[in-house]
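Technical appendix A lists one of the benchmark inputs used to test multi-chain prediction within the project. The record comprises two sequence entries:
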Amino acid sequence: MEQLYQEIILDHYRSPHRAGLREPFDAESFQINPTCGDEITLRVKLDGNKVEDVSYETLGCSISQASASVLTDLVVGRSVEDSMKVLTAFQEMAQGRGQVEPDEDVLGDGVAFAGVARYPARVKCALLGWMAFKDAVVRVGEPGGGTA
Amino acid sequence: MTTLEGLDVATIRADFAILSRTVRGGRPLVYLDSGATSQRPRQVLDAERAFLEQHNAAVHRGAHQLAEEATDAYESARARIAAFVGVGPGEVVFTKNATEGINLVAYAMSNASVGESAESERFRLGPGDEIVITELEHHANLVPWQELCRRTGATLRWYPVTEAGRLDLDALELSPRTRLVAFAHQSNVLGTINPVGELVRRARAVGALVLLDACQSVPHMPVDFSALGVDFAVFSGHKMLGPSGIGVLYGRGELLAAMPPFLTGGSMIELVKMEGTTYAPPPQRFEAGVPMTSQAVGLAAAVDYLNEIGMDAVHAHEMALTDAALRGLAEIPGVRIVGPTTLEDRGGAVAFVVDGVHAHDVGQVLDDRGVAIRVGHHCAWPLHRRFGIAATARATFAVYNTLDEVDALVESVRAARDFFGVS
């Protein structure tokens, strides 16, 4: 279990980075985990092609909250393209059933979630924020993207 | 390990091979998730195997010896299961699960609403008619009624739930347009036992039918549908030491006789011509196609097993476990029971929240210690929303659980608080 709840994860859970919903934002996404009812509302603000801010409100477990916190560290300041590469790497690790060796250069603190892959029931928790981020980025520029 | 009720739990546990396995690196399994699905004793598995090795054939068709034996086994199972809940064999319909049983009634009403038959008039719904449920229902007793109302233009109303986890019966008045009142016998989250007698009385006063979701009561206490006076009731095999893939719909004889079918096809017919078909009498009318057979035999074996112990003893034992869990959890700071906190009108589903620790995380720590509970909304999302929470942790009991296992639960919840630094 200590593999799942790495100290980094517990730190992010206790003191989440960039938590709360902020304005202005370009798009918002609301995602739920239908099996447990956990929710996240996540907003994205872009500056041209760069992710300027990600803000969020979660109602969820330590894994989903810490994952959203780590997400903001990994994507804010990056280009949308690079952010999506990180997202893909994170998703592959989380869904890799422990067979995928995470790349710390790409994932930073995100490698702490490698243990989640051994607990299939928690993979969705770790991915909830990332799915919201992906959805929000897609919505940028769409009519009504800001009201999700 | 003989309890005050004279129940020999050690002997019972020996019938359940799975209970002696270990999980998560050698921890003994403490299975407290029987409300989701129960484990099955050797007797149930043996009955299914014996049927399949000796008598297997398609029932209600064929004239060979195996077909006769299989049909006898199937109908004998029906009779024993019917007697277990105080009804006649002709009033018991086998379905895939309880969810299908509820959908069967909902779709029969739907079919009655588009049909012309005078016989099924009493099941017809239209705009202005009402279906009444409660805020504590499992999605299985909620979504089918939402859908039925959507199809027919009827209105769905519900009794709200109080802070104490009881139905607020004063908050809603049934009307002459109320056609059906559907509710759980025992809440699968709160453990609340609903006042069946009072709800039946109110429904009768306006001429409404009553459907009881008995999934969480039939496995745990003596239940007699005739005595309760309900019109329909459902329960699942896999929550009462029996197989999955089989559920039971009870319908009062004269209602089933007047109700149009849901699924149609083989087995449920009386006379088929290219121009049209007449239907078999119930229960066959509601069992289209070759039914689940070894599962029916297995469920009857589960009923025999429970009868052997005695449902009064099962209930007393589970109440002792529930009492210990309620007391043990109440002593932990920051732990709140969601639902009644005493045994009054209460069954053995114990849902709780731990301040500062999400239910998923509670469940993970428990799992690490071998304690299997359910976390989430337990298919009762509106009920959780009503209490302003996304998820609860839930322990549920069966006849094979022990007081030591309740202690392991309480101990593990303390450990979860320690682990997340909220103690």
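The interface with chain B takes residues 1, 4-5, 10, 14, 35-39, 59-63, 119, 122, 125 of chain A (CB under 8 Å). The domain at 7-139 of chain A is CATH 3.90.1010.10 (Sufe protein. Chain: A). Comparable benchmark entries are summarised in Table A2.
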